[in-house]
Amino acid sequence: MKTILKSTIILLASILISCGGKEEKKEKGFSYEKPKTSEQTTKKVESVPASKQIDLTNKGIGPITSLSLNSEIDQQLVSHGADVFKKMCTACHRPDKKFIGPSPIGVLERRSPEWVMNMILNPEEMVQKDPLAKALLIEFNGSPMANQNLSEEDARAVLEYFRTLK
């Protein structure tokens, strides 16, 4: 019985000795964290949002291919355009701030008159084919501009109203 006891003690001691006291080498394995390198300190390039981009050469897609604006603002057209804007556009646009859609303040400093009128008259095709209109759709959370079925005269009046917004 002493032999069994001695052999059990020796066996337990050898197990304890073999389990402890060793330093395990950690192998480089899979990690979810990216290794930090000096190359990862690249600067973020800020892009200009579509509503702030300036493109006065793009005429858009639609019925208006050429438009000349008089140097003087037609106040009768402005009055009519303000009425149309108030009735048809204020659900999504505010003249003085970003809302569901962009503010029209300064739009003619960023877009051609043809582009603005084509966006008013032909928003579905503009959003499908015009790169700037696509970018605006993305910027404004995928809220497409509704086609209000305005006449060219009404759209021209709204454009004249936009000329007065500062």
Arithmetic mean pLDDT = 84
Total DSSP helices: 7
Number of strands: 0
**Largest sheet: number of strands, sense, barrel closure:** none
> Which parts are unreliable, with pLDDT below 50 for 5 consecutive residues or more?
40-45
What is the string of SSEs from the N terminus onward?
HHHHHHH
**How big is the Rg?**
34 Å
**Shape, per Cα inertia axes:** rod-shaped
Query: How far apart, in Å, are the first and last alpha carbons?
Result: 105 Å
Q: How much strand content do the residues show? A: under 5%
The amount of helix comes to: 40-55%
State the secondary-structure class. Answer: mainly alpha
Verbal overview:
- It is a single chain.
- Helix content is 45%, strand content 0%.
- The protein is mainly alpha-helical.
- α2 (75-88) packs across α7 (152-164) and α4 (113-121) packs across α7 (152-164).
- It has helices spanning 2-19, 75-88, 107-110, 113-121, 123-129, 131-139, 152-164.
- It starts with a helix and ends with a helix.
Features of the shown structure:
166 residues; 7 helices; 0% strand
What's this model, at a glance?
With 166 residues, this protein is mainly α. Helix content is 45%, strand content 0%.
